[in-house]
Amino acid sequence: MSIVEFHHGISDKLAYACRLLRKAYRTGAQVVVTGDAVSLKALDRQLWVFDDREFVPHVLAQSEGSLPVRQHSTPIWLTVDPATAPGERGVLVNIGQTLPAGCERFARLFEIVSNEANDRQQGRLRWKSYAAKGWQVNPHEVKE
After folding, report:
1. CA atoms of 95 and 43, how far apart (whole Å)
2. Which range of residues forms the domain containing residue 125?
3. Predicted TM-score (pTM) of this structure
4. In total, how many domains does the chain have?
5. In CATH, what number is assigned to the domain containing residue 36?
6. How many helices (H) and strands (E) does the chain have?
7. pLDDT digits (tens, 9 = 90+) for 55-64
8. What are phi and psi for residue 8, nearest 5 degrees?
9. Which DSSP category does 75 fall into?
């Protein structure tokens, strides 16, 4: 059974994702972040500059087999297809608007939903999908 941590009401999804990923990195978590290619590229750029005192190790995997083996141990993978991430990774973060493919293989899923109308509506649909699977969905309203 998977647990979904549903973070909603967020004004800036990418800034919030950066803070969440920094926290995950500090705890030693192995994380996969998924979403559309444009959002992942923007998150990649933001992870390089959001905190000038600390680096969050990550890699943007644009296609399967495109990265050297030495990068397989990088703790945070940004990818359109979560199945391409190597090794055992127990946490999936979704910054996209669709149900992530292969999300069943992760023990924990973080949904990041902005307060933009279309993103909220897509988030509601994903919530219903998770609930229909019998997964535990924990709401976290973010008040920024």
Report:
1. 9
2. 3-141
3. 0.92
4. 1
5. 3.40.50.10110
6. 3, 7
7. 899 999 865 5
8. -135, 165
9. S
